[in-house]
């Protein structure tokens, strides 16, 4: 008796293990077959990375994301509304093409052939929020107070009057 492998349970290939998670294509949704139980996804197959606008030119009710390259506007809206319960007014997306580079083989320098490699495309989304505003939290706030406390403690340490700070550890015989 031979058993055939189910086509919807494909392992990740050796090639895909070398690609970082954010550059991999999204996994295919399992094929529905009558009689099978309902497929449940507890984690989304896509990712979104929030970006900070360094120039602060964006209005307070808009947020800039880098998203998975296979996500559409509908996927972005569902992701934010279902997971984070945020009301969305408008979504604009754009894609930047990856850079093309020409490389020569390092193993065989006598070959004159070059290989063209292309970086993956990157997709971005501008999301306009309906009723709320977004402001980045100040994550350095607690860190700065710790640094200030350390500096204050260093100032409190008073050296004894007979020791000069620039000649610590040197016997007085050599200082005369």
From TrEMBL:
Top-level division of the source organism's lineage: Eukaryota
Entry keyword annotation includes ATP-binding: no
Keywords from the UniProt entry: Ribonucleoprotein, Ribosomal protein
Example of a GO MF term: structural constituent of ribosome
GO cellular component: mitochondrial large ribosomal subunit
InterPro entries recorded: Nucleotide-bd_a/b_plait_sf, Ribosomal_uL23-like, Ribosomal_uL23/eL15/eS24_sf
Name of one Pfam family that matches: Ribosomal_L23
A Gene Ontology BP annotation from the UniProt entry: mitochondrial translation
Record SUPFAM superfamilies: Ribosomal proteins S24e, L23 and L15e
Residue ranges of the TM segments: none
PANTHER family: LARGE RIBOSOMAL SUBUNIT PROTEIN UL23M, RIBOSOMAL PROTEIN L23-RELATED
Family: Belongs to the universal ribosomal protein uL23 family.
Protein name: Large ribosomal subunit protein uL23m
UniProt source species: Crassostrea virginica (Eastern oyster)
Lineage, opening ranks: Eukaryota, Metazoa, Spiralia, Lophotrochozoa, Mollusca
Gene name as annotated: LOC111133190
